[in-house]
Amino acid sequence: MTVSIDLAVPPRVLAIGAHPDDIEFGCGGALTKWADSGSTVHLCICTDGSKGTWDPDADLADLVTTRQTEQRDAAKILGASGVHFLDRVDGELANDLTTRARACAVIREVRPDVILGHDPWRSYRLHPDHREAGLLTIGAIVAARDPHFFPEQELAPHRPATLLLFEPERIDHLERVDGHIDRKADALLAHRSQWRSTMDIDDADERRASGQRAAFVGGLHEKARTHGLRAGLRAAEPFARIDDL
Questions:
Q1: Which CATH number belongs to the domain containing residue 52 in this structure?
Q2: pLDDT means per 10 residues in the chain (245 residues)?
Q3: Is residue 82 within 8 Å of residue 43, measured between CB atoms?
Q4: 17 within a domain of the structure (yes/no)
């Protein structure tokens, strides 16, 4: 399979993720690289992150507020200009008409040249929100380009040039990210509420956490190096690329 390498720096970029921190895992290096090169980057988060804890007694309203704050902090580290929250309940995301209209409005407002999102066709995908977020992204792209979808929005139609799907079932595009993994890691570590459940970092024991953070960051570097080997690159993030939008 032919693998393309590096898009021209897109003027405007929109990344759509199911939960706070999903975008950073999937394409944080590419977003940082583009932001540093002059792209205007926006993030769109589909759910409120209210299931993102293993504590059965957690105050979920407080968790939602925390996760939004963490996401805004992470966006600043990435160099993103704006964060849009669709506020759907974590674990209950659906590619329904109402949610698709909201995602479509974000696309029409941001007017991105490149959109990034979850690959909904990845085999054995466990989390339903990731699959639904991918389908929602694709459905919203189709709606945003056509003036007869959601005309009540009074927003001009918009057709992006390229869709890059992260966590891809098939890999046919790579973005070089050498020099950008540490910022990706810093953005992920800004999601402190997820250290224990997602990153295997014990946030209650600073001495243990220090080594675990180092291991987590090292794992991000190793994963990027492994993907880069596919095309002789030092470090890369992988995508499935769709240009016919």
A1: 3.40.50.10320
A2: 94 98 98 98 98 93 97 98 97 98 98 98 93 98 98 97 97 97 98 94 84 95 96 97 97
A3: yes
A4: yes
131 half-sphere exposure, CB direction, 13 A CA radius: 10
Give whole-number Cα distances, 100 to 42, 97, 141, 142, 153, in Å.
18, 5, 9, 10, 12
- Contact status, residue 46 vs residue 91, Cβ threshold 8 Å: no
Q: Is residue 99 part of a domain?
A: yes
Total length of the chain: 245
Domain that holds residue 200: 9-242
Task: State how many domains the chain has.
Answer: 1
Where are the alpha helices (H) located in the chain, listed in sequence order? 22-36, 60-78, 97-110, 128-144, 181-189, 195-199, 206-229
**Domain membership flag for residue 3:** no
Q: What is the separation of C-alpha 70 from the centre of its chain, rounded to a whole number of angstroms?
A: 14
Dig out the tokens for 122 from the structure.
Answer: 């990845």
End-to-end CA, the chain: 21
Chain centre distance of CA 214: 22
Q: Which of 108, 138, 107 is nearest to 121 (CA)?
A: 138
The closest of 228, 123, 122 to 168, measured between CA atoms, is: 122
Closest among 20, 13, 16, 57 to 36, alpha carbons compared: 13
> CB–CB of 26/166 below 8 Å?
yes
| Residue 4 resides in a domain | no
Question: Quick check: pTM over 0.85?
Answer: yes
